[in-house]
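Throughout our pipeline, every protein is held as a single compact record rather than as scattered files. The record that follows is passed on verbatim for readers who wish to inspect the format.
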Amino acid sequence: MGETKHTKVLIIGSGPAGYTAGVYASRAMLEPILVQGIEPGGQLTTTTEVENYPGFTEVQGPDLMIKMQEHAQAMGCEIIGDIITELDTSRRPFVAKGDSGTTYTADAVILATGARAKWLGMESEEKFKGFGVSACATCDGFFYRGQEIVVIGGGNTAVEEALFLTNFASKVTLIHRRDELRAEKILQDRLFKNEKIETLWFHELEEVIGTESPLGVTGVKVKHTKTGEINEIPCAGVFVAIGHAPATELVKDVLETHNGGYVKVEAGSTRTSIPGIFAAGDLTDHVYRQAVTSAGMGCMAALDAEKFLAEQE
């Protein structure tokens, strides 16, 4: 049997929301435990330059997250490298099971599990995942020096990935099913000015094609969304950048969700449909999805949890 640890506030997840909640809950003398989860530091650990976090003209994503972790620890937050696999919300104290065998009991829980990259769900995409198909340019762009690659998508993620990949690739083709992008205008301006990037409008990915042994991508088949015509584009890598889905596995059957699975919170708060359970960051935010808004919600969640616990006493 693993050990059991009790805390007034259990924080699940370690992105900007989780670490900020850790700072505020520690300052409120709640002695929080933060369990980092499958990706310590969250999505920012797979980005490079962050230029829109206040106080930093430019900072590397992983460095920013290390600073946040150190800040939370310095305030007194206990940070544990474990993954919560089960959460019982039916009784208080709430009970969470860790992959390590540790059981965590908590008077309040702050969920900050974030979001993960979405995939298209195609057989050929699955087949070549890790062998030429990726959802993380900063993780894998380095492998495509001097080669041609394609990016699928039309939002901020897709444009940021395409721009980043020009650091390595000889050419980047951005494939989008419509004729205009959803990305911020400043990003679009950078994209259209970059001579290495070609935008292919009104097309969607039909199939990833490649070699069998060794397994590797040699190109993609794309379909025109209006005419149905199929064309082949040679490339060595395919980056799928169609956004993110909230990581709600622990609570999707017990908490109220909306807008495609995001945890619903009361307006102007982080309170979920179960008293004592709070949600912050990309897990609940389907609109802004920024590091700074996640951090702000982490602060709100800690303050909401402090108020809840005070009322229980």
Observations:
- The chain has two domains: 4-116+244-312, 119-240.
